[in-house]
Amino acid sequence: MAVWTFDGTFNGFLCLIHESSRRKERPEGILGGGKNQPFLFETVPTETDEGLAASVRTALAARLSRRVLTEGYYAFLSAMPGREMAVYRYFALAWTAGPGAAGLLADERVRTVHEAGRAVSRERHRFLGLLRFSELGGVLYAPFEPEGDILPLVAGHFARRLGGERWIIHDTGRSKAAVYENGTWRIAGFSTGGPLPLSGREREIRDLWKRYFSSTAVQTRKNPGLQRQFMPKKYWKHLPEKEDADGIR
Amino acid sequence: METLGKLAVLAEGAKYDVSCSSSGSAGRRGAVGSTSLGGICHSWSDDGRCISLLKVLFSNDCVFDCAYCVNRRSADVPRATFTPRELADLTIQMYRRNYIEGLFLSSAVVGSPDDTMIQLVRTATILREEHRFGGYIHAKAIPGASASLLGALGLLADRMSVNIELPSETSLRALAPQKSRNSILRPMAFIGGTIEERKKWRRSGRSGPAFVPAGQSTQLMVGASPENDFTILRLSEGLYRSFGLKRVYYSAYIPVADNPLLPARATKPPMLREHRLYQADWLLRFYGFRAEEVLTPEQPDLDVALDPKTGWALGHPDFFPVDVNRASYEEILRVPGIGVRSAQRILTARRGHLLDGDDLGKLGVVMKRARFFVACKSPAFPAFPAGGDLRRLLSSPPRGKEDSRQLRLEF
Ligand code: SF4
C-alpha cells in the first residue's frame, strides 16, 4: 500500500493531485503535515510548489466548477478523519462526472465531503460573531479553538471589518495564527505560552460589555437552554460575557 | 454618573419594545438565529435572544409624557444621558472587539426634538468621521425633527425609522399628547422622498453619498388602543405605498403603566394577534393581496385561529380549486400551503411535465393544507370544500405560550 505525504497545506494537496495525475497512480492513503507514517507502508513524498498549485487550482475550477472546488476546500479544512482521501476521491469523481458532481447527493463520496464542508461553513459563520478581540499593546488579539482549520476562512472577513488595525487571530489548538498588518494577512506558527494579561482599560471595556449583556436580557424570561442551543458551552471560554458563568450553571 | 451606570440605565430603558426604544423586532419565535443582521449574531442573551447591535437609548430623560412608555416624564425611573462622545467611544470599542455589529441609535426627547436630533447627529458623526466606523447604524428619528437634521442623520445611518406608534390620530392625541400624526408622517415622508430622489439620481448615472441605503422602517403598537386589524392593515398598506417603507413592524403592547386609557397591567400582550398581523402584512407585500381583500368593514379583525391566507381561501370557495398545471403565478400564490418559492418552482417544473401530488410535495408545497385547494394530475384530492370540518382542520393552534416572546431581533 502506498501512502502519499504532503506538507498539510491545501496548496500542497493540489500539488499532490497533480503528481498523482502525472504518474497516473492513485494514492491509497494520504498523510499531511509531517505526521509520522508507519514504516510498513511505502511512502510517496510530494513537494509543494505555489506556482504549480495556482495552475492546478485554475484547472480544477475550470473542469469541476468553482462550486465543487469550494466544497472540497471546505471539507479539506474540516476535522473529519481521513478528510484528505475523502476530498481526493470527491475531486476524482468530479473529474469524470463533470461539474454536475455536486448534485450527485446519493453518492456517498459526495455526501461525506458536503457534510464535512457544511460543518466547516457553519463553524466559520458562528465564529464571525463569536470571536472576541482584546487590545494588547496596540494589537487586537483574538484566541479561539475551532474544530476545523478555519483561519483562512475568517481572516478575510476581519481584514475588511478591521482594515485600519493590526490584529492577530490565534488558533490555540493548532498553534498558529492569522496576522494582519499593513493591509494584508498571512498565516504563521504562533504561541503565547498561556493567557495574556489584560490592561486596566481592557478590563473596563469588558465590564461595560458584561453590564450591557446582562441588562439586555429580560430576567423573567430566562431561557438558558435556548441560549446554549445557539451558543454552546464549548465557545464560552473566550467570551467575556460568560467568563464568570462557567461552573455556575 | 459614570459610563457603566448610564449604560445600565439606558440599556434597561431600551430593552422593551416600546416606542422610542423599539427597533422593529422582526424576530419570530424559532426563526431568529438565522435571520440576524447580515446574518451575524454576536451573542445570545440569557433569554435566548440574538445580540447583534448595541441597543441603548442616548437618553431616557424625556420631556414627553406618552402614557404607554416606561420613560415618560411622569414615570419614576432613574434618568441618564450619554454624551455623544461617550456613546460613540463605547460603540467603537465594542465593535473593534467584535462584541457587536453596530449601533441602534435612538433617544427619548431631551429638551426639544431638534436638540435631541443634534445629539444623535453628533454621535453618528464622531463614529463615522473620527472613528472611521464602517459598521451598521440604525437611527431612529425623533418625531417633529426638522428636515435639515433628518437629512444629516440619513447620510450617516444605514437604516432609519420613525415609529408610527399608534394606528390613529385619536389614539395618538389621547395617549401621546405631545406627538401628532403630522410630526410623525412628515419626517417619514422626508426620508422616503430623499431615498427615492437618490435612487433616481443614481439611475441617471450620477454618483453621490448614500442616503439610508438599507431603507426606512416603522413600528406600531398593537393592543394599546382600540383600533381594529382592518384599520391597521390599511394603514400599513398606505405606508408601503406612499413612503416606500421596507417594513412595518407590529409590537404587542406590554402594559407598563396604570392608566384608564390603557389595558390594565395584568393584561397579557396579544402575541397571537401580532403574529397574525405579520402574516397579513406578508400577504400585502409578497402575495399581491390588498388590505380590502384580507379584511372588510364587516369583518374587521383577523381570525386568530387561522392564518389569514387560509381565512381568505375559506371565504372564497369559487376561486378554488386552482389548477397548478394551468393557473397563473398570481393565482397559484393564493393557495394556502404554497409560498413564493414553491410557486416559482411550480412554474419551472410544469414546463417539463404535468405535475401530480407527489411533485407538489417535492417542490415544497405543504400538502396538508394545499390539497384542499389545488387540482393537478392526481385525481385523488377531495373536492372543495371538503365538508364543514375544513375550518377546524386548517386552523393552526397558537404556538407555545401566548406571552413568551423569547426571540426578538435587534434591528
Ligand atoms: S417620546 Fe414618548 S415614547 Fe419616546 S421616550 Fe418619550 S415618553 Fe417615551
Q: How is the secondary structure organized here?
A:
The complex is a heterodimer of chains A (249) and B (411).
Chain A: E1 2-6, H1 10-23, E2 29-32, E3 42-45, H2 50-64, H3 66-76, H4 83-97, H5 108-130, E4 134-136, E5 139-144, H6 151-161, E6 167-171, E7 176-181, E8 184-189, H7 200-216, H8 224-230
Parallel strand pairs in A: 1-2, 1-3, 5-6
Antiparallel strand pairs in A: 4-5, 6-7, 7-8
Helix pairs in contact in A: 1-2, 2-3, 3-4, 3-5, 4-5, 5-6
Chain B: H1 3-15, E1 43-44, E2 50-51, E3 53-57, H2 84-96, E4 102-106, H3 113-130, E5 136-140, H4 147-156, E6 159-161, H5 169-175, H6 181-203, E7 216-222, H7 229-243, E8 247-252, H8 271-286, H9 291-294, H10 308-315, E9 322-323, H11 329-333, H12 340-352, H13 357-362, H14 367-370, E10 374-375, H15 390-394
Parallel strand pairs in B: 3-4, 4-5, 5-6, 6-7, 7-8, 9-10
Antiparallel strand pairs in B: 1-2
Helix pairs in contact in B: 2-3, 3-4, 4-6, 7-8
Iron/sulfur cluster (SF4) is lined by residues 19-20, 62, 64, 66, 69, 71-72, 108-109, 176 of chain B.
